[in-house]
Amino acid sequence: MAKKKRLAPASAWVELTTTRSDWDALPAADLRMMVVQTLWIRVFEEYVLELAADGLVHGPAHSSIGQEGGAVGSILDLETTDFVNGSHRGHHQFLAKAFGHVMEPAGDGVPELTDEVHTVLRRALAEICGLAEGFCKGRGGSMHLQWREAGAMGTNAIVGGGVPQALGFAFNQQRAGSEAVTFTYFGDGAVNIGSVLESFNLAAARQLPVCFFIENNMYAVSTPLSTSTAEPRLSARGLGFDIPSWRVDGMDPLAVRLATAEALEHMRTGQGPTIIEAEVYRYFHQNGPFPGSAFGYRTKDEESSWRERDPLDLLRRHVVRRELMTEDELETKKQEITDAMGAIGDELFEPVPDGKPGQRRVRADKWPDPGFVDVGIRGDLSELDDSRYEEQDTFDGELTDRRFIDVVSDVMGRAMELDESIVVLGEDVDGLKGGTNGATKAALEKFPERVLGTPISENAFAGMGGGMALDGRFRPVVEFMYADFMWVAADQIFNQIAKARHMFGGESAVPFVLRSKLAAGTGYGSQHSMDPAGVLTTAAGLRVVAPSNPFDYVGLMNTALACDDPVVVLEHVDLYSSTGTGPADDLDYRIPVGKAALRSEGDDVTVISYLSMVRHCLEALEQVPEVSADLIDLRWLDRASVDWDTITASVRKTNRVLIVEQGAVGTSYGGWLSDEIQRRLFDWLDAPVTRVTGSTASPSISKVLERAAIARTEEVVEALRRLPNF
Amino acid sequence: MATLMRVPEVAAGATEVVLSEWLVDEGGDVQSGAPIVVVETEKAIVEVEAEASGTVLRRLVESGTTVEVGSPLALVGASEEAGDTDSLLAELGVTQSGGKDLEPAQQASEETPAETDPESGAPVAEEPARERIFATPLSRRLLAEAGIDLEEVSGTGPNGRITKRDAVQACRERETSTSTTEPADQPAAQPARAASTPGPSYSEVEHTRLRRAVAARLTTSKHSVPHFYVRRVVRIDALLELRAQLNDVSAQRISVNDLVVRAVATAHQEVPEANVVWTDDAMRQYDSVDVGVAIASERGLVTPVLRGVQNSTPSAIARRVRELVDQANKGKLQQRDLEGGTISVTNLGMYGVDEFSAIINPPQSAILAVGAGKPQPVVADGAVEVATLMNLVLSVDHRAIDGALAARWMTALASVIEQPLRLLA
Prior knowledge:
The structure holds 2 protein chains of 2 kinds.
Chain A (H helix, E strand, L loop, with lengths): L12 E4 L3 H6 L2 H26 L14 H8 L7 E4 L4 H12 L12 H14 L23 E4 L7 H13 L6 E6 L6 H12 L4 E7 L2 E2 L2 E2 H4 L16 E5 L3 H16 L5 E6 L20 H8 L3 H11 L5 H22 E3 L8 E3 L36 E5 H15 L3 E5 L14 H6 L4 E3 L4 H14 L3 E6 L9 H14 L9 E6 L14 H4 L6 E3 L4 H13 L4 E6 H4 L2 E5 L13 E4 L4 E5 L3 H11 L5 E5 L10 H11 L2 E4 L9 H11 L9 E3 L10 H7 L3 H10 L4
Parallel strand pairs in A: 1-8, 2-3, 2-4, 4-5, 5-9, 8-9, 13-14, 13-15, 15-16, 16-18, 17-18, 21-22, 21-23, 23-24
Antiparallel strand pairs in A: 6-7, 10-11, 12-19, 20-22
Helix pairs in contact in A: 2-3, 2-4, 2-11, 2-12, 3-4, 3-9, 4-5, 5-12, 6-15, 7-15, 13-18, 15-16, 20-24
Chain B lengths: L2 E4 L9 E7 L6 E2 L4 E6 L4 E5 L4 E6 L6 E3 L3 E6 L7 H7 L45 H10 L17 H13 L16 E2 L8 E2 L4 H16 L2 E9 L1 H13 L6 H15 L5 E3 L4 E3 L5 E3 L1 E3 L2 E3 L2 E2 L7 H17 L4 H4 L4 E5 L18 E15 L2 E15 L5 H16 L7
Parallel strand pairs in B: 14-18, 18-19
Antiparallel strand pairs in B: 1-8, 2-4, 2-7, 3-6, 4-5, 6-8, 9-10, 11-20, 12-13, 14-17, 15-16, 19-20
C-alpha cells in the first residue's frame, strides 16, 4: 500500500468578503470618490450604448456596465506611475485610471467634475467613435485605448494579448528601482489562453510586480464558464505557479479594494505577482445595447438577480447611510454627468439634415484626415541623426579576419556597455557560457544581471520584451533560438509589437530588437529550418535586417539597437562559424537604414540576395564567369527600408533580375520584391524576373532531402546558366 | 472581271506607306506596268506600277493617307463594270471605310451573313487573326522610341520573343539602310507655316519621311562609326585629257566624277582588303566593286549604288548615273537601287568647293569626297609649272580599315587617276 501525503500549494488562495464594519471603516473621502467615479463611468457607458444604438460607434461597443466595481475598487489606490492595460472590454478601467491621473486626492467635499475630467470624458468618447481628437487620434477606438501619461498602457482586442506586455511594464518598473506595479485586466475567456498562463509562469519565475486581474463575468461572448473549464474558480490557476490569489465579489467595490490593498502590499515589497479574481456581471451582451438574455444564452431572471447587487447602488446606499451624500446630491451629480455627456455629444455630432427626429451624424471636421491612414506606422529615424556611419570600403579603422559569431557576441557586449538600458532575454541566453551558439557570451560575462534566461514560452517573453519597449525605459533584445518560433509568438510579434505604434496613434516608439536565427542545413528538420524574411516583411511596422558578414553585422546591429522601431535581425547558423572581414577594435559604428551593398558589378543581370546567400551568390558567379552580374546584398529587407536607388540603377543597366534566397517557396521573400520590381521598372526589363528559392517542402531531417529542399551555391549556378532561357 | 490592287511591299520590311499622289484619275485607263500611284516610304519615294491593264474603277485610298502594306489600293477592271463597283468590292470582300482603316479582305468567302452585335445590331468587324508578337518591356520601349514597329523585328529570344538584342539590332539596321552623305542643297520648299506669335519670325517646313530618315542615319553614322580621314591632292591633267578624248567618241557625255567612280573600282581591285564592310561578327570582303553615288535629287538626297563597276566602261558608268539621277528626280528609285556597296563617291566640285569631308553611309566602310579641279602652280623636275589639281578626302570606318590600309588605297587611287589610261586597260 503506497503511502500518500497531502500536499498544499505554496501560496495562499483566499476569498475575501466585506462586513458592515469594513464599510464603516472606509474613509469618507474614499467612499465619495468611489461612488462618484462609478457614477461617471456608468453614465459614460450608457451614453456610449446610446450612440451605438444610433449607429454612431463604428464597430463593437463593449460596455462595462455592471462591472465598474472591479475597476474602481482596484484602481483607486494606484498612482500615475503604476500601469494598467486591459482587454477589449476596458472603458471602465481606462476611465478610472485617467480619473486617478487628473483628479486631486480625495478630500472633504464631493469630487468635482473638473475641466480635466471633462477632457478625459470627451477624448475617450471621441476615441471610441474613431474621431481625430481621441486619445489615439481615432485609430484605436473602443478596444485600443491608451494614454501613456496616465499610465493607461493600452487595451487590446486580442483576448489575452496584452497580458505578456504587462510583464515588460512590471520588469521596467522594478528594474528602474521604483515600487510601481502593473495591473493587467482580462476576462474569464482569456484565462485559458497560452499567453496568459505563460505569463503567470514567467512573472512568478522573475518575481515581477504584476497583478493579473481576472474579471470573471461568467460568459465568453455566449459560452458559459461552466462549459469551458472544470475549475470555474479562476483564481485557482495561480496556485500552480506559486502566485498568491484572491477571490472577491466584484459587485462589491470595497471587497475589490481590500483585496487590491493586500496584493499591492505583496507586490510593492518585491514578493512577485498576484492574482485577483473578481466575480462581476455585464448587464448587456458582449457588445451593443441589448441584454444577454435577448440572445438566449442566459435568462432575464439571472440578469435581474445580478442587477439587484449593482455596485453603483451598493455604493450609493452606503454613502447615504453614512450621511456623506444625500440622495439629492447624488441625483445632482448624475444630472451633472448626464448633461456633460450630452454637451460633449453636441460638440461631436450634429443632427442629420432632413433626417428623422433625433438622428445624428459625426460632424465632418471631427473625423481624422484619410491621409492619416499610414502616418506613423514606423518612426522617422530621426533618433539616428547623429550616427557615425561606416562602410567597409571607406573604413579608417583597422580591419581583420573575425569569426562571425564572435562579432555577434562582442558587439552586443560593447553596446551594453554604452547603453545601460539594453537587456537580453530568451531561451538559454544565460546558459552554456553564452547561449546555444555563443552569441551572448560577452553580454553574459560583462552584465550577467542583464541577460535573462526565460522559460520556453515565446509568447510570454516576446510580449514581455514588447512591454519593455512600449514603456521605453529598457531596450529589449529578444532572441528566438530558431526563426520558426515566430509562429509560436505570432500574436506578440505581428498583432502587438508590429502594430502598437500605429494603432495607438503613431507616435510612441517601440525600440524592440529581435534576433532570429536561421538554421537551414543543420538537420533540424521541418520545424526549425525556415527563412522567416518573407513572412516578417508582411508586417508594415517591422524593420528587418539581414547582415551577411562580420563588418556589416556590427554596424547593422548598432543601428538596430539605436532605432526606435522594432527591428528583426536575421542571423544564419552557416555564417556563425564563418570568418570574414570585421573591425579589429571599433565596435561602435553604424550602417544606415535602407542602404544596400553592391558586392560585385557586371552588366548581364542584377542578382539580389541577403544573409548567407550572398556568399553563395559570389561563389556561383565565380563558377559562371560568362555571366557578369551586379550582386546586391540588400541588408534591409522590409518594404520601407529596401534600397530602391541601388536596385533601380542596377536594373536599368542590366535589364534582368535574379532574386536569390534559401528557403521554401511558400514563405519566400522574393515574391513581393519581384512584384514591386516589375511595376517600378517594367520598361527596363528584358526578361521576366527570375528567382532562386528552396523547394516546396520544408527541409527534412534526412541530409539528402534537406539539401534538396534548400538553395545553396549549386542552385544559383544553375539559375545563372539558365538565364538566357528566360 | 475586275482586279483588286493592293498596296505592294515597296521596301523590304516596310509595313506601311504614305500614298503621296495618284497618277491616274478614276475612270482613267492604265496599262499593266505603267505607273498608277506614287507612295513614299521612309527610304524612298516610289512609283507603283499597275498590275493589270484596264480602267481605274475606284481609288480606295486618298492621297496623303498612311496605308498598311497589303490593304486594298485600287479596283481596276473593264470600263463597263464601272456602274457597280460597290458590289464588285463586296464580292472581293472589301468593306470600304476609307483610308487607313481598310482591312485586308477576309480569306474565306462565307455564305452566312456577318455576325451582328446583339445589342446594336451593327455588323461586328471581324479582326483578322493577328498573332500576338512577344516582346520584352525593354525592347518594346526601345523600338517605340526608334519608331520601329514590332512586326518589322524578328525575335530571337525564348518563344521567338523580341529582346533587347533584337531591338538594338533592328535599330542599327534601320539606321544603316539608306544612303547618307553630307547634305546637298534641297529644292526650295515653300514655308508651311509662318510664326504667328510675336518674336523672331521664322517659318517651318515639315520634314518629309526621306528627310527624317537621312537625318537619323547621318546622326547614327557619325555617332556609332569611328571616322578618320585621309587627304590627298591629285593631278588630273591626264584625266581631263582622257575625258576630252573619250567624249569625242562617246555618245554619252562622261564627267570627271564618272571617271573617279571608275578609278575607285580599280583602286579596290588593287587593294581588295579595302573592299570590305564591318559586321558585328566578321569582316565582309566583296568580290565585286559596288560604288554608291550621292545624288542631290529634286526630292532629296539619295545614294543609289552602281554594281560591278570594275567591269564597266566609263561611258556605261556615265549612262547608268544619268539614269539614276533621272529616276531619283522622278521618285522612281527602287529599294534595291539603294542597298549595298562598300564605298560612295560624293562630289561638290561642280560648286567650286575645294575640299570637304563626308559622313560614311553605313554599312559601307568609306566615302570619297571629291573637290573641284583647279589650276595650281606645282614644282616638277625642279621647275614651277601649272597643273590641274583636285583635292580628295576619304572618310574611313576605322573598325574596318586601318590608317595604313587607307593610305595604300589612296595611293592606288591617286596612281590610277594620274595614269588614267589604266582605266581603260
